């Protein structure tokens, strides 16, 4: 060890002073084996831009990822 503790004190900070952001957390299902969780984050220079990006990301999730996630069954994962 070099005694340098600077790397131990690194903290990540997300800037919120410029632009706008939207974050939504979705949870579907109630059981451990029947549950989907997703977080969608969008950012933009204005609230309108952030909402437009969010709508695009949500549409992509609905169109592709939601069905793909639900198609994965825990028993299929255990067999590999």
How would you summarize this macromolecular structure in one to three sentences?
The chain is an alpha+beta fold and 80 residues long. The protein has helices at 47-71, 74-78, and strands spanning 20-31, 34-44.
What does this structure look like?
- This protein has 80 residues and is of the alpha+beta class.
- Helices cover 38% and strands 29% of the residues.
- The protein has 2 helices and 2 strands; from the N terminus they run E-E-H-H.
- It has helices at 47-71, 74-78, and strands at 20-31, 34-44.
- Strands 1-2 form a two-stranded antiparallel sheet.
- Strand 1 (20-31) and strand 2 (34-44) form a beta hairpin.
Keywords:
single chain, 80 residues, alpha+beta, two-stranded antiparallel ribbon, 2 helices, 2 strands, flat
Order of helices and strands: EEHH
Q: Report the biggest beta sheet as strand number plus sense, adding barrel if it closes.
A: 2 strands, antiparallel
Shape: flat
Fraction of residues in β-strands = 25-35%
Backbone structural class: alpha+beta
Q: Topology, pairings included?
A:
Elements: E1 20-31, E2 34-44, H1 47-71, H2 74-78
Antiparallel strand pairs: 1-2
